[in-house]
Protein: DEAD/DEAH box helicase
Amino acid sequence: MGSDAHKMNEDETCRAFVLPALASSKWGEKQIRSQYRINNGGLVPTRRRHKRGAALVADYVLEYLPDVPLAVVEAKRYRRNVNDGVEQARRYARKLGLSFAYATNGSEIVEISFGGEKPTIKSLERFPTPDELWARFLGEQGVLGTKAGGELLSAPYDYTLRNTDNTPKRPRYYQRVAVTRALAALARDERRILLVLATGTGKTLLALQLVARLSNAPGAFGGRKPRVLYLADRNMLVDDPKDRYFLPVFGEDDVHKIGGGEAKRGRKVYFALYQSLEQGEAEAELFRQYEPDYFDVVIVDECHRGSASSNSRWRKVLEHYSPAFQIGLTATPVKDDKKKTDTYEYFGNPVYTYSLRDGIQDGFLSPYRVRRLRLNVDMEGYRPKPGEQDIYGRVIPDDVYGPKDYERVMVILERTEVAAQYVLDHLRATAEDGLQGKTLVFCENNHHAGRMRDALFNAASEEVGRLPDYVVRITNADGDPGMAALEEFRKEDSNQPVVAVTSKLLSTGVDLPAVRNIVIFRRMASMPEFKQVIGRGTRLCPEIGKESFDIIDFVEATRLFDDVAFDGPALRVVEDTADEQGTIVDSEDVTPPAEEPEEPDAEAVAEPESPYNQEEGGSLNVLHGTADTVTDPDEVDRIRARGRRYTVKDVDVYKWGERRYQLADDGRSMRLVSIEQWVHDRVLELSLEPGELRTQWARAKSRGLLMEALKESDINAEMLPAEMGNPDVDPVDLLLNAAWGLPLVSRDERLVRFRKEHRTFLGSFTEQAREVLEGMLLKFAESGSPQLKAETLKVPPFSNMGRVVELTQRFGGGKAAHEALDELASRLLSVS
Structure:
């Protein structure tokens, strides 16, 4: 068998050695999950769309019970060294929140145990049995020997809820880890438990499965099912989980929403608003009608809000139910010493954290692009003329007004109108098949949201003619009509509203998977608020093909991405450049280089305290200084003395950005030019004929030199398709069109013509070499001709085919490979 075993591949090794070894240790077939898919694979950006990276897949996961994993097994072929699988097994186990991993080549077994006080790597004669590993698992969780621990951690999940394809809605790996950590904490009699999961990662499903498993472990609660209170501070945070998740699973007889001043009993899962529980006279509020020990478990959704502050009037609710296990759920824990708000102080450190960065890397959340735009009045400030009156005839106090004043003290009507036009232009430019992406706009306050709605409505006459509800305002002042509009807006298959304008109402607690654009026109200094706002767009929506979203930032709120307290880097950050008429003439990629983020500092997520609040919670600050809060008492008094909001119009507002200039005909002055004119003149300065440009562009080496020469003239060739509004056209065709007016040909058209005219060329290569060339054609379709070079062989999908040296050998060596790629480019770019 020895020589035959060395010829086996990995699959044959598993069948011949690994699976029998597991069976001999009493692992049943249903306990061994093969090709265990851990995540979906991160979304990798291309020029036009996104592709998924490779998913993480473990060879085997050992489960004590369905969806209760204990260990990972990574198998290698028999002739490989067993240690070759150690790092991979350890990586997968840590991802799954497990302390045990095994690497094997069929002949040897290595156990990696990295839980507890003494992590070890050691060789074993056999795999541990399920009961042995279960006992060790309980020990790792600190519940070995406790009846509650064994029953809670072996309680089954509930699979009543179904996906759209009627398959069971199974929890994702991180949701299972979070549930396991919470159950173990309960079994250890920890009364306050914190779970931190990024917005869009399914905290409601997590809560449902947690309650389901608790209900399936009656022995942990004296032989009965536990009574659970689900607590929040907004109706949508209560009604959505109740109606969409808990009612289908537990039924109407066991689910109840507390309200109407009546304390009903006899149910298993209760939902309540703090506001409802607070009804009644002091010391006789509704929540006091339930004894302190009536509820076994209290789930506090968005626990960074509501009762998070020690001096909150709602903290008394949690304190009344202090005998219960209290589980806090949030995406954004808060620590603010000034406001005496500390999620950690009350709930303790999180037993599990799943960040936005984790969600994007796993392919469960949408990556995003950022487009920053500043207006001239935001950059320069606005100062009224002496004695100038606003539109209501009130004299405006002499001062320099800036972003901290706008919409609170000073309203410039044109500021909102220019921003609205920019948003509309973006929606029209990015529409797919005539459909514009659903867009959520955050404004300073309800008044500002109303003006933004009006400005968009007036600018979008074409769209409003077809879709009367094209743009709506949804705020706490819009009542039932606003909520009805929200229900339509959140539907994936509804074509209107397209744009929803809000202030704060939709920043948290509502699922909006179809949103493709988040517009920030509201100043934000609070990291929790910023992350909640961004979270409105992070949900994937495969039903409509949404795999990414755009952020349009008018107020530099996205500078918070650079804060160590934020953990999800943008795919791309774009700074727009505009001329004096407000037309975009350039877009510069200013994405910072990727770095490993530091661990978030709890102090960094504190929300600054406002010295003075006007209606809708706005702080009255001024342009002077850099702080978000005015600390000079005289300055605060001066702001308060103004005491009103001034509205002005006929202000010259335009988009502000870097401008491109060119020497005018007089040889002395400079004139502003468009991107097309700039490219035209710079290409002609290269003193090349169209054919020479095409020839040099076709060869990777000379193409690199051309691109460097263009960069020296401030032209980024790879950005030209986006900047010139032709994302489907290759850079070389845009250069030829701008300089000499040659017709534009899309990359797809070039590919079709190439395949018709150059079949013989492709057929002249071996099958393995053709695989590489076909991959290059796909790269061209996605990203354009700059990718037609040997360096591209280092990235997917080529890196999955083998090392660069192995790929070039398919052509007979490096030189032959370079020549083949250059010939491919030459033929591809010459077809017409």
